Queue: 4 jobs
Job 1
Amino acid sequence: MPDDRPQEDGLLKPGQVADMLRVTKRTLWRMAKQDGFPLPVRFSRKTVRWRAAEIQQYIAALQCEPLP
């Protein structure tokens, strides 16, 4: 049985990133098009991963932003 838990180091699948951000995969892909969102690592047309450390930094930065 594969382990789909997010790893502290390494690469994350789109579903894992979406779960960490508490969004759908569709919303994740919308976010990926915005400036400031970590760039994915593309291995092929269909295989995409994000660096776990970059996603964790992105989440930390969101938590530090003041609300409008």
Job 2
Amino acid sequence: MDIRTHHRIDRKLCGTPLKVEPGQCELELTPGPEMAADETGLVHGGFVFGMADYAAMLAVNDANVVLGAAEVRFLKPCRQGEKLLAEAQLMDEKGKKRMVSVEVRSEAGDVAFQGTFTCFVPEEHVLARSTDRTE
């Protein structure tokens, strides 16, 4: 796996890559207790979204990839301790724009999350210019 982006991401929070190939990615995440929104072990949706976003970034796999927009649906609740699998697939590429489909399934095979992520690959890192500014 040649991973070219998001090198400093915390995989305990966003998932561990199982497969990264051109235009596709698979991630695995077992949500820990810090991800539970309440005493029932319901995982806060932000963590599921973060996993899906990371999968989309790896499907594009460019050092400068950034998220521009996302259209998502949370379909089933996720529980702390239940393994999740995210699968991302590059659907379309036009210039700097990349459209990526992501699905997150529970350990039982239920689709918990679906999303379409609009990613962009600028020529330079999005913060490159801001770090060059003098005040």
Job 3
Amino acid sequence: MSVTSGATAFSSPSPQVPGFLRLLAHDVRWRLMLALARSDHRVHELIALLDQPANLVSYHLKKLREGELVHERRSSADARDIYYSIDLGKVRDMFFAAGDALHPGITHAQVESAHGSEPTTPRGLAPGSSQPARSRSERAERAERVEAAERAGGVDGPQKARVLFLCTHNSARSQMAEGILRQIGGNLVEVCSAGTEPSQVHADAIRTLAGMGIDITGHHSKHVDEFRDQRFDYVVTVCDKARESCPYFAGDPDQIHWSFPDPSALEDEEARLQLFRSIAHDLLARNRFLLSLVEGDRRRSKGQ
């Protein structure tokens, strides 16, 4: 076979480089994505993390926003601040789409999209089911990871990763985050939640998770001081105000921030419930990626 005919045989349907890959091909933009993949950040934090001039960081953030890879939201703690975040599910889908464009053999199964699911049933949980709706291969992979952890003696012992979710009132966002991660994390994590000004679990948080097959009726709001002397591997703030007043925890846990608005602040019942469902959907996606982060950190700590 000639070189020409061979090249023709393996030509991509579209010879154009995907815009997604062109965006990520710049060092500063790639470093921004790396920073935001682990936690939401404000612009001055990104400037410090990258050690780059403010105008350069702002320019590349704008490019990523225009490419719909980065989103922004005004802080509920200080409206002058803006938090930047990325949709890891969307980025994952774009990576797989780029792989398919290069050669269909690179991806063996269509990746479940993080978008398009009904808000009443966040993608990944079957309607009315208490179990995540995973494919057979996903379940098998998770079972293998759990079995490996059991062989290492870490599932029921001190190697189980400890995660603490924090918000202001420990009534909605942190309670839903706790319930979702406990459900999908199984024996890999130990999960708690607390607030800087605890009140009581919001009825719509209970109602929303019940629609996902998750029961948090036994939850109650707790003050963060109850956990001050405990060691955690990951402390995740899901409220901008809580991040500003997050206390110090021993052991230098990984500090992660997910910037979410307060759904309980909405007075209109229909709009409020819709926001609860939207946040629950996002929490499910973020918690799945958090589990992958936990597993990756564990492997690296063991030198695997």
Job 4
Amino acid sequence: LFHIGINSRNKEEAQDTAEIFSRLFLMKATETDDSYFAGKIAEIMKGPFLGTNGHIGIAVNNFNRAVIFMKKLGIEFLDEGYIEGSVAYLRTEIAGYAVHIKQKY
């Protein structure tokens, strides 16, 4: 598990949520253009994003091999959010969450 992503309505709600996670788990909250991170475990989006509720990020050791393997299983990926060699979102949500794989660094 790389991180969970939580969709919020706006920047203020995202910041509040990140601060709660940060206090609870003694992690630093940091801001990016699109989100706030609470440490490395939670990414709180500044507005609606992929997934009804948010997203789940899974780290993989070899991104390209993971994509090939998953495609052989019949899994399809979205064009949106795809970053060659780094990030790919599955076409299907699971329990209201978008799921993406990400190259482990």
